[in-house]
Amino acid sequence: xxxxxxxxxxxxxxSLATAAKGFEVLGFDPDPxxxxxxxxxxxxxxxxxxxxxxHRHRSRIRFSAAVAELAKCDLVFFSRDVPTDxxxxxxxxxxxxxxxxxxxxxxxxxxxVILCQVPPGFTRSRKSALACRGVKWGGQLFYxxxxxxxxxxxxxxxxPERFIIxxxxxxxxxxxxYADWLAAFGCPLLPMRYESAELAKIAxxxxxxxxxxxxxxxxxxxxxxxxxxxxxxxxxxLDKRIGPHAYLSPGLGIAGGNLERDLITVKQLSGEYGxxxxxxxxxxxDSQYRCDWALRKVHALVLSATEDPTLAIWxxxxxxxxxxxxxxxxxxxxxxxxxxxxxxxxxxxKLIPTADASVRLAGSALEGCRGADALxxxxxxxxxxKIEPVKIKAVMKGGVLIDPFGGLDQxxxxxxxxxxxxxxxxxxxxxx
Length: 432
Description:
17 helices; 3 domains; globular
């Protein structure tokens, strides 16, 4: 049996993906209410395909808060999400507490894998600390880079590009229970020392950040020069040095938790070891500037021309297909527009994590923009594309539509009478 300890977003997705591959799975969490809800088919997180995955493979997975059950597992994953604090630094307290509380209940012959995102040095230090307490799992301790991406977690868990495996000694053959689990996913394996694997996760995210920052810089120039970034991106995808899967979509900076967490981690490590990381500071400054793109548009197009405007915001999650609002540009925009009337709508986020009670939450997208002077689409939810722009315009008072990600049909928006604005392209439609 394979155990997953910690049933947060990460643990739920990976335990169900493991059941889908035909393994018997135990999902453990010290929260009895959470386990009872999962046993009843109630998911505390939302991901495309996750509910279907649970119902299809429930016969192979059990959820339990009984720590003694872990002794039955010959392969165990620590799979609790590691949150970030207000400064976007990893908060490892809960993970450390979980490891300490269950370590003695795991079979001494079991293989244990830390699947959570942790900073370099964590796995080896935990191994040493546990050994001092007499905890030595015969099947060894490994670290594995998780591939969780909010909004696409199920697809990536079922069909990973590769598995990066941190080992005490990468030359040692993997235990059979772990090797069998890895083989079930049919992807390349990259064994390496603990610290290399821990840093590999950060390296991947920093290379992603460099692409995001470059894309946003050039997209802004497109807006000012009359070029269109969507026409340029295909040329880059056909360049072998960049490739068809490059992240070339303009955005509003670095949202979510993991990318900024890794930038902060590299800054801390560079300061500790006397290395230079000025480029990281530049990326963080660039991210803040990009986050304010919609605010600059609102000031130029609405606040400078309309007295006491009503502003409609569609989307609160930091991206589509997730309920997470961590570092959400939408929340930053709402806070910056505090003196003005704001109405927000999101298909999944039903509570704004802010003390500002003056923001009204609408029950539907059209209700959210009724009587508004401008509509700002901060999260490109698929349901927004299904709403005809002419119906949106009919309930609004003004005609400004700010759609950073191009989630709506821009031609239909212009035909409906909007002044339409998106990242990386010149404005189109009527002039105010």
